[in-house]
Design a protein that fits this description.
This protein has about 270 residues and is mostly helical. Helix 1 packs across helix 7 and helix 2 runs antiparallel to helix 3. The longest helix has 19 residues. It contains 12 helices and no strands. The chain is elongated and about 90 Å long. Helix content is about 60%, strand content about 0%. It has 2 domains: about 120 residues, no CATH class; about 120 residues, no CATH class.
């Protein structure tokens, strides 16, 4: 029916951050003298919290050792320098050896555990802790197609440009035949291809050989600027990343190879 609401939380149902803040207040009232690591450990063991929230808190504050541990440890290192000796959980080495603490988080936990503090202040501190443990996921940027029907996230274009430049430098270098360098070239090529396959193709009715030549000329101008020991501005860097993405989307899409083959056949005839 018109105006009918479908999906999502029912009216009055608290969100995950509110549920976590409620349990932070409850755990803080029961444990008024815990250090931050012990407080968080009790929180993740709280069976009154939904499992998905507990797993999110564990991944944020007690990362497993592995490929992604360094990034998670860097975030969690803000929490504390050492774990509570009475705790049966051993935090990762990088967290234990950090000497700097997060005074803001320590203050919020202290306010939550302070039974003499104002109820509104304790609630506000609990919400701040919940926001840290369950950060908001930024919304995807809304993309608007250009005059050729091509649109791409600037962050993806920037990463593509970076990997593409690395790959080009390795391919033209004198050490490209060294086994380790050749392996690196193969890995970068796979990453570049993976990103490029996600590119939308410019409209074949609007983007053709003339537009491709225009993009190549502009990229050549930007390359000349860098060749003169001058750094590109932020706007020029974003423009170069965008043009390379659009050009490669055309060259490696279904339209580019067909046009090149047709040109070869016309020349042969």
């Amino acid at each position: 029916m018109p105006g009918e609401r479908r999906g999502g939380r029912e009216r009055g149902t608290p969100n995950r951050r509110t549920v976590l803040a409620d349990r932070i207040l409850a755990v803080g009232s029961e444990n008024s003298a815990d250090l931050v690591p012990s407080f968080l450990l009790k929180l993740v063991k709280d069976q009154k919290l939904p499992a998905d929230i507990r797993m999110a808190v564990v991944q944020k504050c007690f990362p497993a050792k592995g490929a992604h541990a360094s990034r998670a440890n860097k975030e969690c290192a803000e929490l504390s320098s050492t774990a509570d000796p009475s705790s049966d959980y051993s935090m990762s080495a990088s967290v234990q050896t950090k000497q700097d603490r997060n005074p803001v988080l320590d203050t919020f936990v202290g306010i939550v555990q302070d039974s003499n503090a104002d109820a509104a202040a304790r609630r506000k501190a609990a919400l701040k802790i919940a926001e840290f443990l369950l950060p908001k996921i930024p919304k995807k940027a809304k993309l608007f197609p250009d005059e050729y029907g091509f649109a791409i996230d600037p962050r993806i274009a920037k990463r593509y440009r970076h990997l593409r430049r690395q790959l080009l430098l390795l391919k033209v270098g004198e050490k490209r035949n060294i086994p380790a360098v050749a392996q690196k070239i193969r890995e970068l090529s796979a990453k570049v291809d993976k990103i490029r396959r996600r590119f939308p193709e410019p409209s074949p009715r609007k983007y053709g050989d003339m537009e491709r030549t225009q993009d190549l000329n502009r990229l050549s101008e930007l390359a000349d600027l860098q060749g003169k020991d001058a750094r590109l501005s932020e706007v020029e860097t974003a423009e170069e990343a965008y043009l390379w993405a659009r050009l490669d989307a055309f060259n490696h899409g279904p339209e580019g190879p067909v046009r090149r083959r047709l040109k070869e056949l016309n020349s042969a005839e």
